[in-house]
Amino acid sequence: MAELTSVERVMRVLRNEEPDRIPHFEWIIDHRVREAIIPGCSMEEFTVRMGLDAILTGPDFRKQEIGDNRYRNEWGVVSQYTNEEHSYPLEAPIATLEDFQHYAPPDPHAPGRYASLDRLVSKYKGKLAIGVHLNDVFSIPRYLIGYEGLLMALAADQDLVRKLVALSVDINQEMALEVARRGADFVFTGDDYASTTGPLMSPAMFRQLFAEPLKRVIAAFKDQGLAVIKHTDGNIMPLLDMILDSGIDCLDPIDPVAGMDIELMKRDYGHRVALKGNVDCAHTLTFGNEQDAVRETKEVIRKAAGGGGLILSSSNSIHSSVKPGNYLAMWNAIRMYGKYPISLDTWGGDTGNTFA
């Protein structure tokens, strides 16, 4: 097969087809890991120089500093910023149904809302796959009422939950119109439904409150010509059929810490959905060595690369505790072993000693 561009490679996989080689990109690569590999490198520059296959962004929401590294954003959420890539939410704007009735979300069509996307499209359209982080049905309700508040409302105030879910669907439908018009190739949603032991709600409750809205928002994305990668950590097996029935194109990250087996997922569900994952970033990439990273990368290829439909990445992100050498070992193994037709014997041995 002739060499594909990165966007052709990713979009072929999202159609559950075989590319020229397995694509790779990560939702997050912590600045300390990037700094160890390419000093002084922004995430954009790192993406280009490392030859990652997708470049990612999201809508631009303003925030106002209200304390020491503490900000209130346009959603009304107060967050604490640390040296990690993610901020930590402290205060939510909604506690009751009355609060919701007086709440106004950010305008999805506000001027400047997609300035970051516009800039990336102008530079990389047709070269890299351009992905935009939107949401589906869980993260915005959790964001607006707080994690504990949402879990309590699931039991005590399902009318409020339904209204929050409907708000999430509506605003993300509008944002999908904008990002598709501006040239995004795919969206990814980061709404986590489960812990390592199982879903955060019963399958019956998921079906009652979330399954149909999930179908609606995914259909809205797809109607705009956007492919959809759905992220959720945890043991999602009790919810899996409902998630796949929503029409997503790709499921991420097939969480090994939660007992999710990418080999079984490929065997039983690979005809329905592409897969993204799943080298263990909680253990292998953090506490293992380079040989471990190579070995596990090869195992993911062996288990899930057949016929295409695989984006190979970590099992969540390249967070601050990942050893830079382990990430490089995984990255290089993808390049060495991930060419179609797949042959795991093209590189002599499982060593990663190049990355001392």
Give the gist of this structure:
This protein is α/β, with parallel strands linked by helices and 356 residues long. 41% of the residues lie in helices and 14% in strands. The chain contains 14 helices and 11 strands.
SSE ordering:
HHHEEEEEHHEHHHEHEHEHEHHEH
Order of adjacent strands in the largest pleated sheet: 1-6-7-8-9-10-11
Q: Tell me the number of helical segments per DSSP (H or I, 4 or more residues long).
A: 14
* SSE class: alpha/beta
CA-CA gap between termini = 34 Å
- What oligomeric state do the depicted chains represent? single chain
Number of strands: 11
Query: Rounded to an integer, what's the Rg over CA atoms?
Result: 20 Å
Mean pLDDT: 95
Can you tell me the overall shape? globular
Task: Assign a percent range to the helix content.
Answer: 40-55%
Low-confidence stretches: 346-356
Tell me what portion of residues adopts beta-strand conformation: 5-15%
Task: Characterize the largest beta sheet: strand count, sense, and whether it forms a barrel.
Answer: 7 strands, parallel
3D structure, described in words:
The protein has 356 residues and is α/β, with parallel strands linked by helices. The chain has helices at residues 6-14, 31-37, 43-49, 97-101, 115-124, 139-145, 147-156, 158-181, 203-223, 240-245, 262-269, 284-287, 290-304, 324-337, and strands at residues 54-57, 63-67, 70-73, 78-80, 88-91, 129-134, 186-189, 227-231, 250-252, 274-279, 310-314. The protein is built from 14 helices and eleven strands. Helix 2 (31-37) crosses helix 14 (324-337) and helix 13 (290-304) packs parallel to helix 14. It starts with 5 loop residues before the first helix and ends in a 19-residue tail after the last helix. Mean pLDDT is 95; it is low at 346-356.
